[in-house]
Every structure is written in structure tokens, then in C-alpha cells.
Design brief:
By secondary structure, this protein is mainly beta. It is 7% helix and 48% strand. The protein contains 1 helix and 8 strands, in the order ββββαββββ. A 5-stranded mixed β-barrel has the order 1-3-4-6-5. β2 and β3 form a beta hairpin. The longest helix has 10 residues. It is elongated and about 70 Å long. The two termini are 24 Å apart.
Length: 153
């Protein structure tokens, strides 16, 4: 399975181009922090090249700017090409199939998030919070007890 999930910020504004058959293309780079913390308390940052096509590219080109934070899902794609000097060059890109806006530049969250998926439609994610001081499952029904002998693994 070739599936990648990234959370990062745009390192620059996306580059908008028209591809074959007038298919819009967005090229951009995301700065993603690693989980590893060094002895000095700093985290390494990876700069990951990404490409999106079609409606996903249109949305990224229209709404995303340098510093915008997104969560992107896609796949790894390795390519090669012959440079002008005759040498063979290799590239690795993430082909972004889905993404979700996580916040505005400099913010960790916004009042509402919008997501873009393979269906190329927007979904407003109005998130309701629940008071956790009460048991949210109190009216759910009777308690079910399962022993480890009941599990198939």
C-alpha cells in the first residue's frame, strides 16, 4: 500500500500550471516537523515536495499561501528525467489526493475547517464539543462484559 499522510505548512505559494488536456497542476512544498526531539530540544523539519491535479489543484492554488497549514493525504511517486547537461535526475513527490485546511497562517486553528477530498467537494466541519464532566454513555444501554475468551484473536 502506498499511502502518505502529512501535516505541514506551505513553504511558499503554490506554483500553478496547466498540464495535459488543460488539467490544472499545483506544485508546492510542505514543511513537516519530525517527532524526534534532539538533545537541544529542537525538532528536525523535512521539506517535502508535493503535486496536486484537477479540482484539488484548483483549490490549493486559489486558497493556499505561504504559511498555510494543511493535512494532506496521497501517495509517493518517484520519477526521473534527463537534465540539460545529459545527467539523469531523480525526483520524489507526494501526489496529493485529499487535503484539509488546518488553520490560517500563524494560527493553530480557525473557527471552521473545510476539507477537500477525492469527490472534489467542500464539507464544512462544524465541530460540537461535549461536556465531559458527565458520562456521555449513561443512556446508551446495558453494560456488556466481554472476556478475552470471546475474542477471535
Amino acid at each position: 500500500m502506498n499511502k502518505v499522510f502529512l501535516t505541514g505548512r506551505f513553504t511558499r505559494d503554490p506554483e500553478s500550471r496547466m498540464g495535459v488536456n488543460s488539467l490544472e497542476v499545483a506544485r508546492f512544498s510542505l514543511a513537516c516537523q519530525n517527532d524526534f526531539v534532539s538533545k537541544t530540544g529542537e525538532r528536525d523539519v523535512e521539506f517535502i515536495n508535493c503535486v496536486a491535479f484537477g479540482k484539488t489543484a484548483q483549490t490549493i492554488n486559489k486558497f493556499c499561501k505561504k504559511g498555510q497549514q494543511i493535512c494532506a493525504a496521497g501517495r509517493i511517486k518517484n520519477n526521473s528525467y534527463d537534465a540539460q547537461d545529459g545527467t539523469k535526475r531523480y525526483t520524489t513527490d507526494i501526489i496529493v489526493d485529499q487535503f484539509e485546511f488546518l488553520g490560517a497562517k500563524g494560527n493553530t486553528a480557525t473557527d471552521s475547517n473545510y476539507s477537500m477530498d477525492n469527490n472534489m467537494s467542500y464539507e464544512s466541519a462544524n465541530i460540537e464539543t461535549t461536556d465531559v464532566s458527565e458520562d456521555p454513555y449513561k443512556d446508551f444501554g446495558e453494560e456488556v462484559n466481554i472476556s478475552s475468551d470471546d475474542l477471535p484473536f
